Amino acid sequence: MPETIPEDALDLVDEPNIGVVVTIMEDGMPQPTPVWIDRDGGEIVFNTAKGRVKHRNMLRDKRVALSVLDPENPYRYLQVRGTVAMTDDPDNAGIHAMARKYLGTDYPWLREGEERVNVRLTPTDVQYAPPRG
Amino acid sequence: MPETIPEDALDLVDEPNIGVVVTIMEDGMPQPTPVWIDRDGGEIVFNTAKGRVKHRNMLRDKRVALSVLDPENPYRYLQVRGTVAMTDDPDNAGIHAMARKYLGTDYPWLREGEERVNVRLTPTDVQYAPPRG
Description:
Oligomer: homodimer
Radius of gyration of chain A: 15 Å
CATH architecture of chain A: Roll
Number of helices of chain A: 3
Distance between the termini of chain A: 33 Å
Helix content of chain A: 10-25%
Largest sheet of chain A: 7 strands, antiparallel
CATH superfamily of chain A: Electron Transport, Fmn-binding Protein, Chain A
Strand order of the largest sheet of chain A: 2-1-5-6-7-4-3
CATH class of chain A: Mainly Beta
Structural class of chain A: alpha+beta
Largest interface: A-B, 25 and 25 residues
């Protein structure tokens, strides 16, 4: 069942912080990679390209974990585990919106033939460590 | 077989950056948590306490992934996957050394009866993304 990200942790997702998303390799090994993240209500969204390792991993296993550290205080961090749903991003609206959040411009690094994918992570387990003094 | 962390990525481990270590839950789900990290030659060391989720996970499955982002440039990051060996830290020398690196003092948060463990991660797969302009 879905779990809720606490109110006082939402800024970690809403600010342009880099998250570490962890997908699962075929042999069960975790594969962490940095990603831009955003939020749609209680769900985390991110974007990737077809054919990348994490995309192939998520096609095989929908379970994903995400970690976000507060850059000002790394003892304040959010961990979200859950399952993902992927949809095509044929006009690149998803990756451009993400780039505007992080870069202030449309995504400048699209490659010829690259096909982007919107990923939506529904939390099933949320852990939040508030600041430690 | 062990893999080597590139020379120009070593500062990410040598500086007091927070790493995200990912262990594997019993059901295969990745469990990312922030950790203090250090280096012994080509191996990554960190420290945890007996009974914590990540300790229990590593007792069951020695495979661990680690991600370190450059706080000045999160597009510069190091990913290390490998296997861990754990040894007791009965006099807390390991956690105190780690605290001196990160806090400049001995570890101040030991709890009554807490038993610490030194963890050594031998890389089997290393990925390093140099700065992106």
